[in-house]
């Protein structure tokens, strides 16, 4: 798994034969991913990821700072260069420096991922929501602790490798 906030660098650092479309065939065990924390970075990074052939492409929306929609150009990705996996999570750490995950945008993002056939892995609520819901796991990563009204977060799916 190669994860970056700078997908423009993929072309520089991947093997030379990757750029000829061989990434899907010769390197099926290499998953390429980008970090997307808001709409600005979704618009900027998703199209760059879509340009690189790979067996598995993924988006890590952790921490998800605000909701986003997939760029309008996303529809063309269904030609074989699609996004396979979406990881979502809240921010964790010292309470004075972190932001709370908003559940409404997460719900919409999960619905959009379902629409596009993208597998969803909800990693954690983050420190503030874990405290708000009085969870034992300080990062809110134990799905079994989630209250009934947030059942939609109980997603730990994986793409087919």
List descriptors:
about 25% helix, alpha/beta, elongated, about 160 residues, about 15% strand, single chain, 5 helices
In short:
The chain has helices at 10-13, 23-26, 39-50, 103-116, 127-132, and strands spanning 2-4, 31-35, 56-61, 85-89, 119-124. With 161 residues, it is an alpha/beta fold. The chain has one domain (2-153).
Plain-language structure description:
- The protein has 161 residues and is α/β, with parallel strands linked by helices.
- It has one domain.
- The chain contains five helices and five strands.
- It has a five-stranded parallel sheet, covered by helices on one side.
- Helix 3 links the parallel strand 2 (31-35) and strand 3 (56-61).
- The longest helix has 14 residues, at 103-116.
- The radius of gyration is 16 Å and the shape is elongated.
Beta strand %: 15-25%
Q: Tell me, briefly, the overall form.
A: elongated
Query: Numbering strands along the chain, what is their spatial order in the largest sheet?
Result: 1-2-3-4-5
Q: Summarize the main sheet.
A: 5 strands, parallel
The residue-averaged pLDDT reads 89
* C-alpha termini separation: 12 Å
Query: What is the CA-based Rg, rounded?
Result: 16 Å
């Amino acid at each position: 798994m190669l994860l970056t906030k700078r997908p423009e660098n993929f072309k520089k650092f991947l093997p030379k034969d990757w750029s000829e479309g061989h990434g899907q065939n010769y390197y099926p065990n290499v998953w390429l991913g980008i970090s997307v924390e808001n709409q600005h970075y979704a618009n900027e990074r998703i199209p760059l990821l879509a340009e690189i052939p790979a067996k598995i492409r993924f988006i890590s929306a952790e921490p998800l700072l605000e909701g986003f929609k997939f760029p309008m150009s996303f529809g063309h990705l269904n030609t074989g260069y699609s996004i396979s996996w979406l990881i979502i999570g809240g921010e964790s750490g010292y309470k004075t420096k972190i932001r709370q995950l908003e559940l409404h945008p997460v719900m919409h993002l999960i619905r959009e991922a379902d629409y596009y056939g993208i597998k969803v892995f909800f990693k954690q609520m983050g420190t503030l929501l874990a405290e708000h819901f009085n969870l034992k796991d300080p990062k809110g990563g134990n799905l079994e602790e989630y209250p009934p009204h947030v059942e939609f977060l109980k997603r730990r799916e994986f793409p087919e490798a």
